Amino acid sequence: MKNLAKSFLMTVAIALITGFGAASANAVPVTFTTTGTFFVNGVSQGTVLTFDSATLTFAGLTSTVDPAQTGGISNDNFGTFTPAGGSATGFPVPANTTFQLTITQTAPTMGSGVASANLTGSLSSAASTLFLTFTQNTVTIGGQVFTLDNLRIGEPDAASSLQGTVTQNNPIPEPTTMLLLGTGLVGIAGIVRRRRATQAE
Predict the structure, then answer these.
(1) In a domain, 112, yes or no
(2) At 4, phi and psi to the nearest 5?
(3) Domain count across the chain
């Protein structure tokens, strides 16, 4: 009887360890949407910043990544900046220009967060010295951490991608793993009850 109980406990333990490993490896994909807003001296400019005859436009996106397939971290694009216009000598970005990126996650959990950056430099008809420097470059939603890279925005009429990573810290266990855990616990409880009943006789 003791050997049978030990064998059962060992089988349950191995199954649970294997199940939890599978749950971590099969974490659900992350789906999110990005939107961006420019501010000058705290006043919203929307998705298009206009300075003199130059403009800088941000286009957000919707993306799905699966960090579990790439070691828990996925590289991704968070939107694009497109400069246009400018003069031969260049138009400087207004002082105190900032940019806020809002990340809205729809899976595996709902939530949103904001990353903030300073925008500096100038734009000419031939070149760009625009720099986006994040003062708050991480957003955490549920178990997901979104980290954004600083960006040098490229030449006029060429889109520059905002890059970053998605790290999944708390993979959600699969339903089969939870079922396996429950079955194992019930089995262990049954063995303990039988042992106690045997010892009491």
Answers:
(1) yes
(2) -65, -45
(3) 1
- Helices 2-25 and 175-200 pack at an angle, to 10 degrees, of 160
List the domain range (segments joined by +) for residue 42.
Answer: 28-168
Ramachandran class of 20: left when φ > 0, alpha when ψ lies in -120 to 50, beta otherwise: alpha
pLDDT at 169: 78
Residue 154 lies in a domain: yes
**How does DSSP assign 39-89, residue by residue?**
EETTEEEETEEEETTEEEEEE--EEEE-GGGGTTEEEEEEEEEEEE--BSS
94 located within any domain: yes
Tell the residue number behind the tokens 């990126």, with chain if given: 101
Predicted TM-score of the model (pTM) = 0.73
Query: What pLDDT, on a 0 to 100 scale, did the predictor assign at position 82?
Result: 98
pLDDT of residue 200: 64
E strand intervals along the chain: 30-40, 43-46, 48-51, 54-59, 62-65, 73-84, 91-92, 97-107, 111-120, 122-123, 130-136, 138-141, 144-148, 151-153, 160-168
149-161 burial, b at 16+ Cβ within 10 Å, e below that, comes to eebebbebeeebe
Listed as ranges, residues in the chain with pLDDT below 70 are 1-27, 170-201
What pLDDT does residue 87 have?
85
